[in-house]
Design a protein that fits this description.
This is Enoyl reductase (ER) domain-containing protein. The protein is built from 9 helices and 15 strands. The protein is of the alpha/beta class. Strands 3, 4, 5, 6, 7, 14 and 15 form a 7-stranded mixed beta sheet that branches. The protein has a 6-stranded parallel beta sheet with strand order 10-9-8-11-12-13. Helix 6 links the parallel strand 9 (149-154) and strand 10. Helix 1 crosses helix 9 and helix 4 crosses helix 5. Bound molecules: NADP nicotinamide-adenine-dinucleotide phosphate. NADP nicotinamide-adenine-dinucleotide phosphate (NAP) is lined by residues 35-37, 113-114, 117, 130, 132-136, 154-155, 158, 172, 189-190, 192, 196-198, 212-213, 240-242, 288-290.
Length: 303
């Protein structure tokens, strides 16, 4: 079978290659959602010295939707380097759920990583930073569906999109940048170890503040919390780190929000399962300017 692998000598560090078909409970993949982390492995985002040794030759992608051997439509999430951009994937019950009936295979494949992350935001007056991106546009919708008043920060060119999701838009590049607080919870999908990023933490004092990225020490604390349940973070601050091996309940919650409350990923681009398609996806992911999600169409759902 064919699957996408990291090859750091290839353009963008990715190519399609022959791989052994997995054994066990197998899903034929119809679509695979892409996430910034897929492309970050090429540059060694968290452990830069080891990118080549760790990623090279391994599978690309976390998110997928597809059809099981018994004909059930499912969507789910794999662990690092298992490679969802692949004709077939092996699944465990803790990583998969029935596909939402209201979503296409392409839309369902866009949901797992970003949707599971968006579930971390709980509050009545919430702020989403990076509201036009993969995590942010789902976090706005999940919070609105849970009854919250939502403010979403994005660039001015994406303000209308953020408004269409149900949030009050605030443009960080506008002349009159102003936040109408207070907020009780903030999801910051922009903050990272990249020094070019604005640090909003001082602006939103007093709120529970969850980031999706940070410095090495934050990832270390997030890892300790994931493994032991013990939080080393200061009160009301946390780096949320998704757990792909215990995702089934969250996936079911997302499917329910899609089928009963209209949660819908915005897929801005569907790319082919080719070297060119993958490289275009990686280039787009690294630009950090994706509106909603990009998805690789791996196979035809009818075949
Ligand atoms: N910890 C975890 O488990 C976890 C899970 C999922 C994602 N993540 C991480 O969370 C981050 C966001 O993921 P994503 O899928 O939402 O990414 P994305 O789709 O690339 O969206 C990021 C958004 O951030 C905005 N942005 C980019 N640079 C900015 C800047 N300098 N200032 C303000 N806004 C900026 C962009 O919006 P505008 O173009 O409108 O500015 C873009 O839409 C990534 O780093 C990802 O790896 C972590």
């Amino acid at each position: 079978m064919w699957g996408a692998i990291y090859d750091l000598r290839a353009p963008e560090g990715v190519r399609v290659a022959r791989r052994p078909k997995p054994r066990g409970v197998v899903v034929r993949v119809v679509a695979a959602g892409m996430n910034p982390v897929d492309a970050k492995f090429v540059v060694g985002d968290k452990i830069s010295c080891c990118a080549e040794r760790i990623a090279n030759g391994h599978g690309v992608g976390f998110d997928f939707s597809g059809v099981t051997e018994s004909g059930d439509a499912v969507f789910g999430i794999l662990g690092p380097f298992q490679g969802s951009v692949s004709e077939f994937v092996r699944i465990s019950p803790s990583q998969v759920a029935p596909k939402p009936k209201s979503l296409s295979f392409v839309e369902a494949a866009a949901l797992p990583v970003c949707g599971l992350t968006s579930l971390a935001l709980r509050g009545e007056r919430v702020l989403v930073i990076g509201a036009s991106g993969g995590v942010g546009h789902l976090a706005v919708q999940v919070a609105v569906a849970r009854g919250a008043a939502v403010t979403g920060i994005s660039s001015s060119r994406n303000s209308e999109f953020v408004k269409s999701l149900g949030a009050t838009p605030v443009a960080y590049d506008g002349n009159d940048f102003h936040l109408e607080g207070p907020f009780d919870a903030v999801l910051d999908t922009v903050h990272s170890s990249d020094p070019r990023d604005c640090d909003y933490r001082e602006i939103v004092r007093g709120a529970r503040y969850v980031t999706t990225g940070g410095h090495f020490s934050d990832w270390f604390k997030a890892g300790v919390k994931k493994l032991t349940g013990i939080s080393l973070f200061p009160k009301d601050r946390e780096l949320f780190w998704i757990d792909p091996f215990r995702a089934a309940n969250g996936l079911r919650e997302l499917a329910d929000l899609a089928d009963t409350r209209g949660l819908k990923p915005h897929v801005s681009e569907v790319l082919p399962f080719t070297d060119e398609g993958l490289r275009a996806a990686f280039k787009q992911l690294r630009s950090r300017r994706t509106v909603g999600k990009i998805v690789i169409q791996v196979s035809d759902p009818r075949s």
